[in-house]
């Protein structure tokens, strides 16, 4: 399964917030979209999935396994999302329904795409909760989002995104809202699941140190445009654009070690 984004443009009130972005993610590949706040990386992901807010319009081409999905009817896109492409959002509190238990939300995600009974879906939800290492899965899925910690809510969001074993996962800064220790735990969990399921990954971040841990190729955005695209190791050791050089300076030195670089 391959995602091909070609000359993607997103406009709001006649202003281009994404301007000619192109990239490709092949089967099993891990690509990072990196840039500062406002660079257009999250908007790019929303455009790929047909989730742009009202007032934003997209043009260009987004092809999934050779099929054009940009402009695809909502009903068809809804089936694609979750079933073939999963997404983990930056802030799980806003992604989860506060008045439904997390188990019910995982169950609904499963039943949208799989013909199983509610009882079967509940058992699958428990298994998903265990897979993302939530404590006491049968009990925790009956809790509401506000009864969980930030790290636990993000694990629930990951469980929902992966419930139907999608071929591609888009993760939009999934650890940014968490403290450093929990960030590392969730990042390790996400990567292990991607490896176990053999998924492709698009990982969105503003942190080059994080990108070094999760992706092999990086696309750097600034003001909605691609300013550099290269293997992550190249971005770490020989960045060419000023924005990438700035991101490198900001990276947390203890989280990465370029080959041949100083400790």
From TrEMBL:
It holds the Pfam family ABC_tran. It comes from the Bacteria. This is ABC transporter ATP-binding protein. Coiled coil: none annotated. GO terms for molecular function: ATP binding. Keywords: ATP-binding, Cell membrane, Membrane, Nucleotide-binding, Transport. InterPro entries: AAA+_ATPase, ABC_Ni/Peptide_Import, ABC_transporter-like_ATP-bd, ABC_transporter-like_CS, P-loop_NTPase. It is a peripheral membrane protein. It comes from Microbacterium istanbulense. It is found in: Cell membrane. PROSITE patterns: ABC_TRANSPORTER_1, ABC_TRANSPORTER_2. Belongs to the ABC transporter superfamily. Residues 3-248 form the ABC transporter domain.
